[in-house]
Amino acid sequence: MKPVLSVEETLRLEDLIEREGTSKAALMEHAGEAAAARVAQYKPQHVAVLVGFGNNGGDGWVAADILSHQGIAVDVVSPIEPNEIKSPIARHVARRTAGRDVRVIVGPSRDELVSILSEADVVLDAILGTGFTGAVRPPFSIWIPALNELGLPVVSVDVPSGLNAETGAVETVCVEATATVTLLAPKIGLYSGEGPEYAGEITCGQLYSHLDEVIGDVEHAAEIVEPADLVDYFPDLPSNVNKYSRGSVLVVAGSATYPGAAIMAAKAAARAGAGYVTVATPDACANLIRMALPCVPVVGVPSDSRGAFGAAAASAVRELAHKFDCVLCGPGMTVTAGGMQLVTELLRTDVPLVLDADALNCMSRLAIGGIEETPEVYRREAPLILTPHNKELSRLVGDEPVDDLGSAIEAAQKLVWAAGSDNLVVIAKGPSTAIVGVEKVLLPMSGPASLATAGSGDVLAGIVAANIAVSHGDIDCWELLCSYAVAVHSYAGHAAAALMGERSVIATDLIDVLGEAMNLTEREALRDAGIELGD
Ligand SMILES: NC(=O)C1=CN([C@@H]2O[C@H](COP(=O)(O)OP(=O)(O)OC[C@H]3O[C@@H](n4cnc5c(N)ncnc54)[C@H](O)[C@@H]3O)[C@@H](O)[C@H]2O)[C@H](O)CC1
Ligand SMILES: [K+]
After folding, report:
1. Burial of residue 485, with CB atoms counted within 10 A of its CB: 0-12 exposed, 13-18 middle, 19 or more buried
2. Could you tell me which CATH number the domain at 2-220 has?
3. Is 440 annotated among the ligand-binding residues?
4. Is 432 labelled a binding residue?
5. Where does the YjeF C-terminal domain lie (predicted)?
6. In sequence order, what are the residues at sequence separation of 6 or more whose Cβ sits closer than 8 angstroms to the Cβ of residue 480?
7. Domain ranges in the chain?
8. What is the DSSP string of 407-473?
């Protein structure tokens, strides 16, 4: 796993490295080398380097010098003369570079800038980095749209200029990078908010050779899950299993209004490897679900007058629950009094539990002002996995706003820290999904846009439940097991898009390609881990 840092954590890391004997000036030299190396991959003959007032600009000045030494024509565009730069380390490298074989243009008009940029094969964006806050001010508010309009390859240093490195927010304008060379460690804003849209391909500049020895001493906002991290999490299928010992899942879901959600969750659980899946659903929709799922036993439990779980459903489901390796509750169940009793009852069982969709909304009604105020309601010995999207997560924490990765992580941490259990994991779903446990925040491989379709969450919940059932509790890191499930869901999005076209994928397509998605996840993990693949 690769650490992802907040801005404050990055500054702390730089200080720590300085105490170990490597100065910030030396880091800037390495940052410039990393940026120049990334630009050189384009094999350019002419490069324009846009620099700002700060140390991000300093990295750009260093890179400009290196590129010109490689025989590349380099234009450096700066808002001020090198002598006027306030940061001593950036001023030093700017003066050094200006005295060498580069053309320096200070404070160009928009037209002059466009004509300089038009001569370049690649542009290096070293305008603003982690020191940037608020809305972009002139002259950069003029430079950035002019650059974007030209559509040239752009390599951004650390973060695309205009992107808030902490939140991923873009207030006004932001460089649309082809590639970003982030420094020391990726910044959380690259994965949050609008970061993924603007950053292009992200690579990390290795500025310090002993990083592994010090990075553990700085807290990190999150960690990126790499394919090789998942090698221990594939459910294998020994020949001596039977349908029960493979892993059994009870899907408590559906209502007369939303029977399809129960069908999709159950089918996904079966396709994701559970040997025995059963659905418990209100009587009112049981027959319809039976017809749709010939391989799955469907148990009807008492309905209320609207065809949702009724008051007597909770005890009927509790009797069933303890016979299964995992219970998934929520898809399509709607929020009713009977549903709330059902969720309360399931939380009290000792069976691993996945709560999704309206089970989460029922849970958030169990406490006013945030469920984390009453952790005894959801604190339990057995694993509990919550799979909220932003709105559901917001309701769980008393309607605190949750609108980007950072706020989702914060809200999820409130829940897991209040319960304080290793077995509680929140899969905070969004364009960038975070998996939040009491000690870890993991960022699994992010899924394609084809996953943004109704029912996609029901499929993910089924995959998670199946993997818990198949593991039989033999798991040392629930966050990684959840990352595996999210990776399979993402690969299903890719595989379904390849078959159906990205805009045409519907949730049932994801279920049909789950077998292929699991194979893809496994192959990628083995390849990343350097394990030989058979033919
Ligand atoms: N992480 C590392 O190991 C290293 C990082 N380096 C680079 O340093 C920058 C951070 O540098 P800093 O000087 O703190 O900030 P910036 O250059 O990002 O920007 C500061 C500069 O920008 C001006 N500014 C701030 N907000 C705005 C705005 N809204 N509009 C216009 N201008 C704005 C402000 O006035 C300052 O002058 C980091 O990203 C790395 O690239 C080092 O090289 C060392 C190694
Ligand atoms: K930048």
Report:
1. buried
2. 3.40.50.10260
3. no
4. yes
5. 226-521
6. 225, 229, 230, 232, 233, 442
7. 2-220, 228-528
8. HHHHHHHHHHHHHT-TTEEEEEBSSS-EEE-SS-EEEPPPPPGGG-STTHHHHHHHHHHHHHHHHTT
Counting from 1 in the atom list of ligand 1, the atom nearest the Cα of 128 is 18
CA 376 to chain centre: 29
In the CATH hierarchy, which fold is given to the domain comprising 228-528?
Answer: UDP-N-acetylmuramoyl-L-alanine:D-glutamate ligase (3.40.1190)
Ligand 1 neighbours, Cβ below 6 Å, are 10, 14, 24, 27-28, 31, 52-59, 87, 128-137, 140, 157-158, 183-184, 207
Tens digit of each residue's pLDDT, the chain (535 residues):
999 999 999 999 999 999 999 999 999 999 999 999 999 999 999 999 999 999 999 999 999 999 999 999 999 999 999 999 999 999 999 999 999 999 999 999 999 999 999 999 999 999 999 999 999 999 999 999 999 999 999 999 999 999 999 999 999 999 999 999 999 999 999 999 899 999 999 999 999 999 999 999 999 999 999 999 999 888 776 777 777 778 999 999 999 999 999 999 999 999 999 999 999 999 999 999 999 999 999 999 999 999 999 999 999 999 999 999 999 999 999 999 999 999 999 999 999 999 999 999 999 999 878 898 899 999 999 999 999 999 999 999 999 999 889 899 999 999 999 999 989 999 999 888 999 999 999 999 878 889 989 999 999 999 999 999 999 888 889 999 999 999 999 999 999 999 999 999 999 999 999 999 999 999 999 999 999 766 5
